[in-house]
Amino acid sequence: MMGTFKKTAVIxxxxxxxxxxxxxxxxxxxMITRDGYYRFSPSLYEPSxxxxxxxxxxxxxxxxxxxxxxVVRSGLRAVVQExxxxxxxxxxxxxxxxxxxxxLFVDSDGLIYxxxxxxxxxxxxxxxxxxxQSYTRPATxxxxxxxxxxxxxxxxxxxxxxxxxxxxxxxxIIQLDRHGDFLGYFGVNLSDRNLLRKIxxxxxxxxxxxxxxxxxxxxxxxxAIDTQGLIYATTKGETREPIKKMNIAxxxxxxxxxxxxxxxxxxxxxxxxxxxxxxxxxxxxxxxTTGHVFVMDNLGNIVGLFGDRRDRxxxxxxxxxxxxxAVNSAQQLLIADRGNGxxxxxxxxxxxxxxxxxxxxxxxxxxxxxxxxxxxxxMKNANVALANRALGLSQFxxxxxxxxxxxxxxxxxxxxxxxxxxxxRQAFLMRNMPAMLLGIACLFVVNALWRRIRRRMxxxxxxxxxxxxxxRTAASRQIRAVVxxxxxxxxxxxxxxxxxxxxxxxxxxxxxxxxxxxxxxxxFYGFVFNTINTANTWSYSPIQxxxxxxxxxxxxxxxxxxxxxxxxxxxxxxxxxIGTMVCTAPIALFYIPYIxxxxxxxxxxxxxxxxxxxxxxxWCGLLILIMVMQVxxxxxxxxxxxxxxxxxxxxxxxxxxxxxxxxxxxxxxxLYTIAEEVALRAIYR
Length: 685
Fold this sequence. Notes:
Layout: H1 2-22, E1 29-32, E2 38-41, E3 45-50, E4 58-63, E5 69-73, E6 79-83, E7 89-93, E8 101-106, E9 112-116, E10 121-125, E11 131-135, E12 151-156, E13 162-166, E14 173-176, E15 182-186, H2 195-203, H3 206-209, E16 220-225, E17 231-235, E18 243-246, E19 261-262, E20 265-266, E21 272-277, E22 283-287, E23 293-296, E24 302-306, E25 322-327, E26 333-337, E27 342-348, H4 350-363, H5 371-380, H6 385-397, H7 401-411, H8 414-457, H9 461-471, H10 474-487, H11 489-498, H12 504-524, H13 542-566, H14 573-582, H15 585-598, H16 606-632, H17 636-683
Antiparallel strand pairs: 1-2, 1-24, 3-27, 4-5, 5-6, 6-7, 8-9, 9-10, 10-11, 12-13, 13-14, 14-15, 16-17, 17-18, 19-20, 21-22, 22-23, 23-24, 25-26, 26-27
């Protein structure tokens, strides 16, 4: 009885501990999986405590090499506060010297650089709170007469070069030397030059272009610097590069950062407020709109995200208005919240500790040695893409290519998958090449014997007569007529108009088969070349894609017939429909071999896949041109003009349909509002 009681108590204690750990963080954690979505994960970081020092008006946060914390405050008390590693106040700097400080940096000697937008300067203050130097607006004409100099954030490298983020500056980060001389701009953001903007630029003169909304790149919002002197920068708002890691030339080393979908929203639309880098090169960035903290490795691969933002804070770990993020030597994260004037300390969980250890070995190329750590990570979260990639590299290094292939597939690592598949394919060919050559030779021999036996013995004459009867059926004649467009396109499309060799039903069947193959393709493409994630309905919907392609084809038929009727074309709507559908025959005939080949090639042979893909599209386009010439009785030049006008007409019809849809929706909403108001008045009369 006593033993049963003890066992029950132990179980209750364990369950209580597990529940307590699960509820320790008042937010969810997520990790990116191979499908490109962020899924729930065990906690990555958990809130430890909140500093007892009031930091109302906090604008920036910095952790020095000795783990002392420096906080810059603006507003009623414009000072810099130094806290110890536990968040207790040690001393203050700059009281009476600062006006509107918004950023700071502390170098290895303990010198404090303060970006003060109110003074339009960066102040260098010593440990004794004396002003050493003031970096003001450069006087050189190279800086730009109209370029604003309103320092918001600052960072300094080991050589003493000062990097300044100026409010409203679209030229990039301002770079000064230790004496304050202007060196140039660094890491400028590029404006978004979409297709419409390029067309406007090419068509309209500068006077008219000045009347459009200016296409100005977003300004950099915050910066950080690592131990190697590489600059990290964040940009708020809509941008393709929300966070950048730049080399000495200002080139972005992070290419596909913040990829994936979270809650149906592209993460590049989030506004990153601040960025921090630890001694191992791991990157941490906090969003000012959602409160999420993004954890990345030194290559920009997403490890995970956590955190939350609410208008009212009732739990430790939830932010109201995050202002800055920093990381200490113990890889604790510190988030300064200007909403409630606090600094919250977040400690890594055992899962995150294991990840950091494994990532440190991964960066050194110790794939095999880190295998146990990655397996431990997968035991806690089986969908971690980075862990599967690392285990794939480990198995590849141990020459276990089949297992490496499986891990690379789980990690959605196409390059690693391609390399492992190449090794497996090479080994297969080396083992089976003699048998394959012998099999091919046997096929030639069997074919020759078959022909001789067939001529002499006449055993298969009944089968031949049956095949002849099948070939004379209407369906067979229709199929041969459609296939004929591949070898003799001009004759086939000529016969469509004059000989009626292809019926509307056969043409529709050809187009339907081509469309079904295109829609089914993403489910059967080789993994290496498949760019569509069929597991996510948000990224690919065969029904929506099929309706779009079908509507575009019918719109082309109607538009082409309308334009041809106006310009003296002789083909009927029926002929245009049949000809257009027949022109998709190359897809119906060769798409299956194309898909099969994509499963047998690697990235090194990717040019073959590209050649076939664009070859099929070009082939269909050439057939459409020939179709217009034969069906409408046009010359080459007139056919080209007809096609261009057809495309233009399709665009006009599409725009009209969109406008009608929007106006119709507004009309329905308006009528609904009126009906609702009438009903309410009838009720309360």
